[in-house]
Amino acid sequence: MASSASSSASGSSAEDAGARSSSSAIQCFKYSQRATLRSVVGRPDGGLGLAGQRAVVGGWVKSSSVLKAKRFGMASPARMPAAETTNLTCTEVLMSRVPLIRCIAKLITGGAGAIDNISSGKSAVGSALVRINDGSCVPDLQIVVDSSLCPLEQIAAVGACLLVEGEIELVEGRSKQHVVELRVDKVLHIGAADSKYPLSDVRLSSELVRDCPQFAARTITVASTVRVRSELIHATHVFFQTNGFFHVNTPIITTTAAGDRSKMFRVMCLLSKSDDRGITPEVVRTSIEAKKKQIEALKRSESNKEALEAAELDLQRANHLARQLEQGEGNTDFADDFFQRPAYLSPSHTLHLETYACALSSVYTLSPAFQAESLEPHKHLTERWTIDAELAFAELEDAFSCAEDCLKWSCSAVLKNCSDELKFLSTQADNRNEDRMESVLSSQWLRITYNEAINTLLQVTDKSFENKVELGTPLSPEHMSYLVEEHHKRPLIIYQYPKQLKPFYARLMEDEKTVSAFDIVMPKVGIVASGAQKEERMDMLTSRIDELGLPQEPLEWYLDIRRHGTAKHSGFSIDMERLILLVTGLKDIRDVSPFSRTKGNARC
């Protein structure tokens, strides 16, 4: 399946690449009459076959330099090498920052016609070498703009948006090979950027980029990651649609609390009818402490009695809300609330997906899931995206075979269609990641039981684990890392877990101690997918609900599936962000989500 998945998923893109290589015509974007940079410098030949043709291109300025006019004619210093890097060269940086080097450069290039950076802010006469990128590919395109067309300080400002027209020319690059640039003769649009643009530095830290999510996609790293994410999602849809699945939209708001309610975001309007919010006890306690400190400060200042009274009233309301949450929903009257019952942001989509699997047979969804836990922000997101699938008339092995095929199909498509992105990301994170991914896809994934995994760990003598290895306890990340990376050295499918480690809906096995559930564990990132055969027997399911102390009334709709036309069915859930970490080799999960949400961070 993996080999056919690889070839099928990448076939159309390979044909497109071949067409771009052999065609000498500019391919315009259908809906804006411009050429994407992917169709120019993103071609296999780097755009060399387009030399002499005219094109309209747009993008955002990544870096720039200005060639000032000589007193007699124009200077002809060495150009910035086109389409090879998005940053200024060391020489250019030194000239812009060290006056002595700039003076030497002026003497070499003929005095008044020296290369100068526009950091002085003065209006320059000459031409600008500007690198732009429209987000469609990794390479930038260098454009050359004469000062007679527009003020160079506007067009060369990092962060500015340009739409220009001109002719594609061949020039000599840094490696003495020909590359292309666009000599501009028409400036169609300038979206100016001022000196406060936050991403104007040559080198940007991950922390700075995360602090500016509105501009993050303008960096090569984030843009490359987004294109990888897009390809993964596309390949996933192709996989399921090709194999006879139907896409279903599952709800984001649910009234079913199938697990620990303290880890779910509550949606309420009752206590603040002007604002919908997800409220947890932890959030309220934090608010109470902050309000107490504010009141103490106001009392010390004795300057604003109205502000003090308002703060004290807010504290009373917060304490009232805290009491309601601590008492539980049983003592809260939801008759006037929006849904007239407790509601939450959905932490999982498997229960709702089961209802459609028991009607359409094979279904899947791509949806956000929410978890209100204070976990390590670089490893866990509050809002994450999952790919969930459910198959009727299927047992456990059917589910993890489908999950394995889906993962191999999607990863193969990315390796084929996002090779430039992966090559660039490997320079930013893990330069062995591409080889690791090839190994993951070519190796046979090993299937072992939970007990076999524990027994293997218990026999380890040359290594000590921080977390105790014991039957009946969860496998920690370090346990799984050892099994996958050091012992078996391949992806693992671990199944047949103790029932206390998996959800109530996992099918109980004959020993009545273990359930038909599994995890797919990958090197470096841990669990990327989890699944289970669902309990179709009504008596067994209700017994598990009672055993875990879950309220049955909110689950009546779910139990109806077993009352009316039950069937064996199985499913799984793939963590999209962890899958992207696996493919890209990046380390921090916040860097693979366009707008990452963690505790204390919901910036925009």
UniProtKB/TrEMBL annotation:
Keywords: Aminoacyl-tRNA synthetase, ATP-binding, Coiled coil, Ligase, Nucleotide-binding, Protein biosynthesis. Pfam families: tRNA-synt_2. One of its GO terms (biological process) is asparaginyl-tRNA aminoacylation. Residues 218-268, 336-599 form the Aminoacyl-tRNA synthetase class II (D/K/N) domain. SUPFAM superfamilies: Class II aaRS and biotin synthetases. GO terms for molecular function: asparagine-tRNA ligase activity; ATP binding. It is an enzyme of class 6 (ligase). Signal peptide: none annotated. NCBIfam families: asnS. Belongs to the class-II aminoacyl-tRNA synthetase family. This is asparagine--tRNA ligase.
